[in-house]
Amino acid sequence: MSPTANGRKAVVLVSGGLDSATVLAIARHEGWELHAICFDYGQRHRFELESARNVCAANDVTSRVVCPVDTRVFQGSALTNDIAVPHNRSDDQMSAGIPVTYVPARNTIFLSLALGLAESIGSHDLFIGVNAVDYSGYPDCRPEFVAAFEAMANLATKAGVDGQRITVHTPLVSMTKAQIIQRGLDLGVDYGLTHSCYDPSQHGISCGECDSCQLRLKGFSEAGATDPIPYAN
Fold first, then answer.
1. pLDDT of 61
2. What CATH class has 9-222?
3. pLDDT tens for residues 27-42?
4. What does the pLDDT look like over 47-99, one tens digit per residue?
């Protein structure tokens, strides 16, 4: 248990994906009282909402809020609009520029809502599973973004002004996908409960070919582990 936790409240952003499941397990291991926030924003990979519920149940969260966000807020993304999700991209292609699966200002909006929840329940700590190593070029997954948001949070809240510092915890930010998976396995994370695919079948089967699936499969391979979820390809 972390000496800084001691049952203090933490708001954890939980998507139902591999990374957020690992972050939730880390926060639980460190002794935080877990308050999960999930988002229904009209994402085409809506199976992640069921996964988020299952992941939260497996970690005995104290509370779970599912926050609806009108999908019209997020235009021009392959995850929320009728735009093709890229398949079978190479590592070079995935690392070149911001992909069409980027959702405009998503982490800024989600962290802002999580911040509101945190302040309302007396929490000063947010956990998010952003990663700047094995990621698909999203600008709101970088350490610079998190540092800027944390600075804003301490300027914009009563808690921050009163000297109760708001902290955004990013335990995965400098880890590879393989390291994340290994950490999760060490903590007993059931990755069979998680969902990562951007373009699943109508029955929720992962495509195995989108950026998210490829990064996930590569991570399991490099960790010397077997991914427990089924794939179409």
1. 98
2. alpha beta
3. 999 999 999 999 999 9
4. 999 999 999 999 999 999 999 999 899 999 999 999 999 999 988 888 778 89
Cα within 13 Å of Cα(211), Cβ side: 21
* Upper half-sphere CA count for residue 63 (Cβ side, 13 Å): 12
What residues are paired with 40 via a beta bridge?
68
The structural domains of the chain, with segments of one domain joined by +, span: 9-222
Q: Which helix (H) or strand (E) holds 125?
A: strand 125-127
Cα distance between residue 153 and residue 161, in whole Å: 10
CA 206 to chain centre: 17
| Number of residues assigned to the chain | 233
Residue ranges of the alpha helices (H) in the chain?
Answer: 18-29, 47-58, 91-94, 106-121, 143-156, 158-161, 177-186, 211-222
pLDDT of 4 strictly over 60: no
User: What CA–CA distance (Å, rounded) separates 21 from 86?
Assistant: 25
- The whole-number pLDDT of residue 134 equals 65
Q: How far is CA 124 from CA 14, 119, 137, 147, 212, in A?
A: 17, 7, 29, 15, 31
Q: Residue 55: is it exposed, middle or buried by C-beta count within 10 angstroms (0-12/13-18/19+)? A: buried
